[in-house]
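For the sake of clarity, the format in which proteins appear in this thesis is described at this point. The record quoted next illustrates the convention:

___
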Amino acid sequence: MVMAAGLGKRMRPLTVSRPKPMVKVAGKPLIDHALDRLASAGVSRAVVNVHYLADAIEAHMKLRTEPAITISDERDQLLETGGGLVKASELLGDTFFCLNSDAMWLDGPRDVFRQLSTAWDPVKMDALLLLVPHPHAHNYRGKGDFHLDAMGRVSRRRSGRIAPFVFSGIQLCSSRLLRDPPEEAKFSTNVFWSRAIEEGRLYGTIHAGEWIEIGQPEHIAPAEELFARV
């Protein structure tokens, strides 16, 4: 599942006339960076949700052959991340990768999808998040998102404190995570994560490579510089 329905407000003015997934970094639209990495890892099918300037994304997806693309249409209502997953759930398998269309990273010793797959334990996990240590989170200026305990279970950053790990926008999920969604169609994946934390079923694995936040126009040049060094 590639999340591509957002409004991209922080990326304005670049997103006034194009959706954020179509903004180019290093000569290629953001969404193609994500889909190319999935294809390289052997993923044969991807679901892409659309809302803002959806026609542009759909037209671009028709140009791709790998992975095969199925569109989850949110034109009528932007459902946020959690609602978007629920709407697309019938198109997804029992276990699936989910990533933001603007996720950009450099792999460590293993590609991130194999790392997640190797660490995955469906008996005890509802979701496994790829987490980035602060020193490897380029363009990032926040206070972090999560802590990890000795067993790899995730807990949230407490208000006013610093957390050592940043969510990369990449995760491996069980369909169990999406059970019993809220009645309101529009909601964040955080709703599911909070329940999984309470049940001890939200886990994390630490990314050994580099990760680049692409949230604002000024993030693009540092990202291109980093990729040029590879």
Observations:
- Residues 151 and 197 are 13 Å apart (CA to CA).
